[in-house]
Amino acid sequence: MKVPKRIATAVINSLKGGVVPRVGLPYITVGREAEIGALLHDIDIVADGGASFRFIVGKYGSGKSFLLQIIRNYVMDRNFVVVDADLSPERRLHGTRGQGLATYKELIRNMSTKTRPEGGALTLILDRWISNVQSEAATSSGLSPEDAGFAREVERRIHEVVNSVNEMVHGFDFSKLLVMYYRATLDGDDEKKAAVVKWFRGEYATKSEARAELGVGIVITDDDWYEYIKLFAAFLRGAGYAGLVILVDELVNIYKIPNSITRQYNYEKILTMYNDALQGKARHLGIVMCGTPQCIEDPRRGIFSYEALRSRLQDGRFSREGVTDMLSPVIKLPPLTYEEMLVLIEKLAAIHADLYEYNPVLTQDDMINFIKIEFSRIGADKNITPREIIRDFIEVLNIVSQNPSVTVADLLAEQAFFAKPELESGPVEKGFEEFEI
After folding, report:
1. Taking the model in full, what pTM does it have?
2. 153 and which of 42, 137, 163, 373 could share a cystine (Cβ 3.0–4.6 Å)?
3. pLDDT for res 430
4. What is the mean pLDDT of the chain?
């Protein structure tokens, strides 16, 4: 397919820089059918009013973040709202100095919909909700906006949505702010609308500040931010969306916390979210978290150091290597096969040639040799990841497209000297038997 230059540029530049592009993923996706299918099955459960929680586990560069972005794009197309955040030393699931609230702020800042995929969709969602309620009121009641009873009918419908969250923890104040936003919209009070959005974003530092500007004696804190995520999920469903999906990456930053008590508090927050999803306490909410095998399975510092989580997530007695269980709460990413990597670099070669307007110079034999050399590097048979292979391949494309005197065969021949001899005619080559030409 013809890839627009804007998207092709984002794809090539992101992959060369070792990061996952947020656009253009359908053009380069290969493999991962089972993992995508399992996560989309979870999304169907969320759409039906349930909740789900999954961990995606894989080495650095194995494709965890790539899979998250694929799911992000899929669910937005299905009318879900998506919030995503990468954890860091300043952003955790629990903290005493604003680290938990910082994660909430990042999630809300990255709130995305199909029509606003780049994030910052909170105001759009609130305005669309009010507009839809007004349209539905006009259609079903036959009243026009100028009629005396129109405002009462709209407010009645507003309260129907508001009452769906009123009984939840902190639901009363959340509902009060939704009504406040609606009335500020009617009055054309942009300052009050901005103050309500500021509250929803968790940007009020003190209760007194919130009380002075909004008359609400509560603010979102490190301890209760997750309760507001559940409130958002309930509200979004009432506002016409299919549900809310949370994507959290870089769990390794919890593993790196030096203080064991602080780590345990963060794992306790994960346990709370996990239990809510599986016990039915949360509705219309999907949660996906990504981490490395070490940050999950390390019995001293990882998630498995928290016994309540280890007993829930650890493989059972009948699990064994090479057998997948996509119904498990932990999805372990296997390496892409040689054939899948070949398909991927073929797609990248076509995009690169089209973007920089030159005739493709790599043959299929060149690409097969490139994959063999990459997997034959010392230690690469066990540790090489798609990220490394992609970065190397784009480097090859850049060099040969800018230097006509340099041939692909020359570049690959130079690297062949560093291959492991026992692999040059061993397992790597066997993986390409069907590609022999």
Report:
1. 0.83
2. 137
3. 41
4. 84
